[in-house]
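User: Good morning. I'm curious how zinc ion would be positioned relative to this chain. Could you predict the structure with it bound?
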Amino acid sequence: MRPVDKGIQPYDKISDYNEAKPYLRERLGDYCSYCEFPIVHIPEVEHKESKSKGGEWLEWKNLLLSCKYCNTRKGTVIKAGDHDKWLWPDEHNTFLAFRYDNGMPSVNEEFLQSLQDGSLDKAKNVFRALKLGTIPKVPYDDCRYMKRMEVFNMAQDDLEVWKRHQNDDNEDWLNQMLKKAKLAGFFSVWMTVFQGETLVQQKLIEVFTGTDKKSFNQNGEPVLRNGNFL
Ligand SMILES: [Zn+2]
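Assistant: Good morning! Here's the predicted structure, ligand included:
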């Protein structure tokens, strides 16, 4: 899950949470904050603590962007006060919390267990509630899987081309690929496929609007954000 940097609250006062949407889109790009789906139509403003269960309606710190799939699945399970039972992409290095081997998300159990700070349970809560690992029987019941696998295959093809030509003067090709990746979404899939390819990873962190730079070192490797914590 891509860690994001929303920055400080960009408004003094709003009267409808949808007024926050342009700011969220500008800061985070048009991606679902949870599944990383590129939202080509209209992203939904997501309340981390559900607005119908006491969560803040208008506070910047309670807002993210979400696709229809994730918003529907999360529903109202997080009520006011439940904030600390989850990991949040705008607060934690969620890239370390999940793996994307072969394009499929899973909880990074071994790593989170080693932290011994409750992150493992929080990551499991997120994964379960959002049904991030769903493989739908009918593809159009949940397009997140199909779209993510398309992007995974695309990224793998690009990795092959990159490996063959990375020593050539291929800046144009790299820029084209980055544009495509930005449109295709699923940052974590690209980062995983290009693991170890420092230049590409650095560029991916740059081009995906809103990616939290504190969550990665100069080589594009994920790092703990707050000392020993995610
Ligand atoms: Zn989503």
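The two ends are 12 Å apart (CA to CA). Residues 32, 34-35, 37, 66-67, 69-70 surround zinc ion (CB under 6 Å).
Let me know if you'd like a different ligand tried.
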